[in-house]
Amino acid sequence: MTPKHTLTLIYKFKNKSQQNQGIRSFDLPERATDFSIHESEVKVFERAILSPRFLNDLRLTYKDEPQQTTSISSQQAIIVLGAFNSGGAQITQQQEEKAAAIQDVATVAWGKQTITFGGGARPRFFHVTDSSNFAGTFTFASLASYSAGQPELFTMNVGNPRSLSRKRSTTASSKTKCKSALPSHCHWVCATSGSPTWITERILRRAWPLPTPPVGVQRSCGRIRNFL
């Protein structure tokens, strides 16, 4: 630019991934998950010497950082206690952070005094999606129960898996706002020991409308073999 104006541009990029993670002692290879994270960040610094007594510094920053963990298989999970675990890991999680920052600082020389003043803002947004166990998980007490097609438990998550939170801060004051976009996220549990019963578990600590159980889950109590 000019001797009185300088501009600095910085860009940072990160790309990291891990495959076939999360395998435990009784897990088959299909239970693995993949993890990835990407980060892009841009910084801009501008300094202006407007006069021998006046200096202005402007700083701008923007960052986008998405990450996700996904199962390599989307099949329903089958847990046979003490024997093996097959099917998908039923883990699907995505999170994205978007952050920006702006800061403007001016310095004035006034006689023997130096005065510095300015302001700034830092908005941040978080988008989170968690659709884990949306296909369902069967739990068998033993290999004999698995061979007979008689699971002890079937669990399945339903509802809206997305949420949004945002945060803003300034140099003069700080304010935080958070909104949840999970109006009807619940957990269905079907016990098959004895008489079929429904148990509903509230995930959020606030009032929400209870959705109708999925058709497949309703049939699972009476016809559990349809899921195998």
Considering the chains and any ligands shown, give keywords for the structure.
228 residues, six-stranded mixed β-sheet, 6% helix, disordered C terminus
**Rg result:** 27 Å
Number of domains: 1
Please state roughly what percent of the residues sit in beta strands, choosing from under 5%, 5-15%, 15-25%, 25-35%, 35-45% or over 45%.
over 45%
Question: Main beta sheet, described?
Answer: 8 strands, antiparallel
Mean pLDDT score: 76
Order of helices and strands: EEEEEEEEEHEEEEEH
- Summed up, the helix count is 2
**Helical fraction:** under 10%
**Stretches with pLDDT under 50, minimum 5 residues:** 171-228
Structural class of the helices, strands and pairings?
A: mainly beta
Number of strand segments: 14
What is the general shape?
rod-shaped
Through-space gap between termini: 69 Å
Q: How does this structure look, described?
A:
By secondary structure, the chain is mainly beta. It has one domain (5-227). It has 2 helices and 14 strands, in the order βββββββββαβββββα. It has helices spanning 143-148, 215-222; strands at residues 5-21, 33-51, 54-71, 77-80, 84-86, 92-110, 113-121, 124-130, 137-140, 153-158, 162-169, 174-179, 186-191, 197-202. β4 (77-80) and β5 form a beta hairpin. Residues 171-228 have low confidence and may be disordered.
